[in-house]
Amino acid sequence: MDLRIYIKALNIGKNHIFMLILPFIISILFILSYIYLKTYILQIFWGDTNLQYKIASIKKAPTKITFISVNEIVKIIDAIYPAKTDNNPQYNQIKQPKNLVKKQQNLPNYKISFIYIGVNKKYVLINGKLFTEGDFISNQEKIIKIEKDRILLEGEWGKRWIYIIK
Q1: Confidence band (pLDDT; 50, 70, 90) for 77?
Q2: pTM above 0.85, yes or no
Q3: Is the domain of 114 the same as that of 154?
Q4: Which residue from 49, 97, 99, 151 has the highest number of Cβ atoms inside 10 Å of its Cβ?
Q5: What values do phi and psi take at 61, rounded to 5?
């Protein structure tokens, strides 16, 4: 009686094992058919040439890779960011002109304390004074645009954004 149960278990097991192995068999057949088709197509186009030569002729040649030494990298970095010493001639060439430094130092400091955007108008409170778009803050600068958290000024210092104090 135990032998009959064992034989039935083997019969059921063979079916299950075949069902488990079936996807692997199908995938192997698919891969082999792909390889066969590839060699068949290569034989059609290139005839009796060696298969390895055919595959190598299809692939692209590798691109040339150049390596930079550490000394060259240091020279490039030194050229971009020279050492900040007074006797370095490269540093003296990079110094900003004095007129630009003066303009940046004389840049007025505006403080925005309130921005109101209504249906037809936009208002901004700068240094305690109320302005709208198109008004001149000073003789040098004009308000170009008012947004919910910043304003755009244009004038002697170019276009610049000023943000609201938070």
Answers
A1: confident
A2: no
A3: yes
A4: 151
A5: -75, 145
